[in-house]
Amino acid sequence: MMAGLDRSMVGSHGLSVHSIVKRYGGAEVLGGVSISIQPGQILGLVGHNGAGKSTLLKTISGAVRPDDGSILIDGTKVEFSHPADALKAGIATVYQELSLLGNLTVTQNVFLGHELTNAGFLRLDQMREQAKQAMATLNLKVDVDRLVSSYPVAIRQLMEIAVAIHRDARYLLLDEPTTSLEGEQVGELLDVVAELARERNIGVLFISHKLDELYRISDRMVALVDGLVCIDSPTDSVPREDLIAAIAGSEASSILDGSHREEPARISRHHQAAPSVRAVHLRTHVLEDVSVVAYPGQVTGIYGLIGSGRTEFLRALMGLDPIVSGELELDGNPYHPSSPAKAAKVGLAYVTEDRKNSGIVPMLNSWYNVALPILHRFTKFGVLNVKRMLANADTILDQLRVRGNRGVGVHSLSGGNQQKVVLARALGQTPNVLLLDEPTKGVDIAVKVEIHRIIRQLAHETGMTVILVSSEDEEILDVADHVCVFVARRCSQVPICVSELTIADLRQAAWATH
Amino acid sequence: MKKGRLPEEVGVLGMIVVVSIVFSVMSSTFRTVDNLQILLLNGAVIGFLALGQTFVLLTGGIDLSTGSNLCLTGMLAAIAMYNGIPWWGAVVIAVAAGVLVGVFNGVLVHYAKLPPFIVTFSTFGIAASIPKILTGAQSVSVKDPFFAIIGRGSIANVPIPVVMLAIAVVIFTFILRRTALGVHIYSVGGNAETSRLAGISVPKVTIVVYAMSGLCAALGGLITTSRLMVGYPVAGSGNELFYSIASAVVGGVSLFGGIGTIPGALLGSVLIATVSNGMNVVHVESYWQPLVIGVIILGGVILDTYRRQVSLTRLLTKRAPGARSPNAPPSGAVTATEP
Predict the structure, then answer these.
(1) What is the pLDDT of residues B172-196, one digit of tens each?
(2) Out of B179, B180, B319, whose CB is closest to A180?
(3) What DSSP character marks residue A365?
(4) Alpha carbon B21 to chain centroid, angstroms
């Protein structure tokens, strides 16, 4: 009893969460997390992909209900069933995606859902004044009568914070607020956040992948590893190396000692061959400086934190994002991708990470989904030879052991089989270069193992060049022959042979700052 | 909001001026005060339907039942008076019926999660049939002289329907600009999910906009019946629906929701009415009119789409995180059709 009282005395000030547990379908994302945020303090929250940062934030913002644990404000237990409840309690949140409405004015956005009215009529002058004040607290010089869409992203990001805190927020939760900003804008945002904490005594939870930012503004640093707090100390007392080691989980290296992987001999087998894809100092509107080589007969892994430019590299190869500068070569010849159709013509096939939106055509059956890009092969004088098409699609589907009824809409298949259908379509195009973005996302373990086997077979037995983007450490180490690590939209180092790597090495490389 | 929209409305105004000058040169009849009265009178019904349509379009929906609703309400008024109900009672019945059709649309769109196109397409058929069933497809004549004032009267040479439309424009503009409801209509059209999270009642907004469209259709129906002093079972089955959508779109109201103004829709309907009237006056066969107006709609929609693409590319070059896929249809980012 005494102990309990003591603890509540300590935690009576500020916002704190105790032993928060959150499970998604059996998997524990948060395994009993306790943190506290004091007014005027900036708490940096850091962790690897999938460590549970965003889930923790959503729990505090009321968007997600924890399975266990409690949230306390100034020692009083609170429960949020809706984001509006958290807002009422003084907790404002800015999520990663911009959420202001572009077709409304700044003032209208500030007051959306709680307009000031007088007998049903808007008190425009008063709202305008308050909106101006809200913008002024962040030193934003914007015309509050203009549409939000007329301002650039950097300003909108700051507006978002202004809108979030204008209703006397005492706590501000920021989920990677700097991802869409560059250079100076990042500095400005950090200054604004620091000022809010200092001058308005607002407690801030700041999630970021960028250690520089966290060291610059946070007072205290919390590191999450696999849903557990592993560091919670004043920022000054946490050496950068220790932090990286903690996030990367040095003990994780013992899990995978490489013994169950295939013999390393395979790696050098095709090494003498000329690279089939070579990118030198590639820049797009996202990528800043990317150099990558991929060889035929090998799986080249692309690893990095979310937002490090992995997907954008594949998009550039497919001609989806225009290349600003740098060189691209395909089998030794200069390559200027301008559209996915042209990329397909020179032998590239692409499996996107977003199966639902850009992978399958849900209403079409498996055969048509597979044959879609190669229908012309079965067409004579404009007439489709359905029999030949079905036979061809069946062959590929059999190879990949797709189960379930192939004659019905592919949306009725399991996620794993849908993913195989997407893979089958890419293979149907008989590509020389296969680009895979998170090919085992949301599939069960058995299918995952199968897909891994297929990918390795494709590269090692048919000599295909496979570029595999994955955020899963094990996937990279198990499937890839060598790996390129993307850091902050850049990649420059020579591909590393995976047989020399541990999970900890991989993660350390991803968190490296230059 | 004012600053962003003004140029486009000026554009429509400019087109009205140009079209008027062209017709004035081509025909001396076009320039007369009498013709201006006819033009405005014809334009008033289209105008009302366009205003109602604007409310629905702003939320990303569409109301295809507006022409049929006009017929239904006009006929109900005539039938009511035929059965001895006084003119004001008939007006109340017509307005209530019109609003009810709108509420019916709104409820189905929101709660049954059906696409607005399908819901209002169905009520389009239902509302068109009821008057024919009630009267055996006969027209019903109206005798009440007071009722005639609605469509035939005038104040200082300005026809009453035009006065009514002017009052409606003022009130509706006020609602959209000066009430929370107005802001919520724009926000639901901009992004229904964001609006819901901001605590806005999306069902209320959805039902209100369709009810407004129903109200406007009823006023159009009353004007139509009053002008002819006959309830006509095929009224509103011509180009009314087509012209109402055309007016709104040409006036800068986006078919994707979230963008547009009442004055814009009004100017759009004036343009459509001017083109229609001018072609009559210069004796162009009437079947040419939908063709010309179809071309005008295409122009308006292309402009609208182009406007969105321009802003999308601008966002992309600024590294919008939400704009990762430039090949997604431009509407994807902004449409918020409440299913």
Answers:
(1) 999 998 888 999 999 999 888 778 7
(2) B319
(3) B
(4) 26
Of A81-90, A214-223, B70-79, B100-109, the poorest mean pLDDT is in A81-90
- Rounded to a whole number of angstroms, the distance from the CA of A42 to the nearest CA of chain B is 25
Whole-prediction pTM value?
0.74
Query: pLDDT tens for residues B283-316?
Result: 888 888 889 888 888 887 787 777 666 554 444 4
CB–CB contact A153 B320 (8 Å): yes
Average pLDDT of chain B is: 85
Q: What are the angstrom distances between the C-alpha of B88 and each of A144, B81, B92, B149, B218?
A: 46, 9, 6, 12, 14
Q: How long is chain A? A: 514
Q: Which residues in chain A are contacts of B335 at CB distance < 8 A?
A: none
pLDDT for A513 equals 66
Helix (H) or strand (E) holding A383: strand A383-384
pLDDT confidence band for A445 (50 / 70 / 90): confident
Q: What is the pLDDT of residue B139?
A: 92
**Chain-centroid distance, C-alpha A256:** 24
The answer, for B317 touching chain A at a CB cutoff of 8 Å, is yes
Using alpha carbons only, what angle is made at residue A477 by residues A473 and A479, rounded to the nearest 5 degrees? 115
Encoding tokens for residue A482?
């060598």
Q: Which residues of B touch A97 (CB under 8 A)?
A: 321-322
Chain A contact for B258, CB < 8 A? yes
Q: What is the DSSP annotation of B93-144?
A: HHHHHHHHHHHHHHHHHHHS---HHHHHHHHHHHHHHHHHHHHTT--EE---
Pairing of strands A348-351, A379-380: unpaired
Q: Which residues of B touch A84 (CB under 8 A)?
A: 199
What is the distance between the alpha carbons of residues B339 and B332, in angstroms, rounded to a whole number? 14
CB-based contact A113 B199, cutoff 8 Å? yes
CATH level 3 topology of B15-316: ABC transporter involved in vitamin B12 uptake, BtuC (1.10.3470)
Angle at which helices B202-228 and B66-82 cross, to 10°:
50
Domain boundaries, chain B: 15-316
Contact B178 A121 (CB under 8 A): yes
Longest dimension (CA), chain A: 87
**Whether B7 contacts chain A with CB within 8 A:** no
